[in-house]
Amino acid sequence: MVWSMTRPLVLVTEELSPPALAWLAERCAVERVGPEDPQFADLLARADGLIVRTYTRVDGAMLDNAPKLRVVARAGTGLDNVDEAACAARGIAVRNTPDANTQAVVEFVIAAVFDALRPRVFLEKPVELPAWRSLREELIAKREVGDLTLGVLGLGRIGSRVAKAAAGLGVRTIYHDVVEIAASQRFGAVPVSRDELLASSDVLSVHVDGRVENAQLLKAEAFARMKPDVVVINTSRGF
Hints:
Helix content: 25-40%
Structural class: alpha/beta
Strand order of the largest sheet: 2-1-3-4-5
Order of helices and strands: EHEHEHEHEHHEHEEHEHE
């Protein structure tokens, strides 16, 4: 691809949706190239912008070979694979898309709840009556989701949306967070202490960020306080 000298050069190292690439192409010279590509080093030396997702590690060694780079963007929420300090030291702005996967994560959490508590089977062909009766017996749920208590550890952007989805199912929801959450953002979830959250939750959904304080957030002592049949779902970077 030949790029214009008057337009910024942006490298895209992993897959992006066609509409996003089209939007970029209207404004920049775009090269879809990964670090393993022989042309990457030459293009990086000329690049004004770098867009990554999950597998490209942006560290000091890479940035040393990108003298013109002005911005690193991650098409995703976390910045685990971007050395923010190294970027800041070089005057490179770092951006992410914090709300990009919120709905997908919420849907996954609700699906995981049903996977754990609402057994089901997909039939690809008719079955005889005895087999059908046997399947019905196997698929009777021991607990109905609407009768359970959902605990949300971290009622932020995603946790609050999980609470909203749970409210639609008639699920009692409690939560614990280190910051005060406005009532309008709780969607009916009731604030409780960490100890009560652990002890009362039939389903515990964890939504904390990747800060150092959240590493190994739930250890053996925390699980010892939970119900024996609790379902724990972790979709966060912390934990």
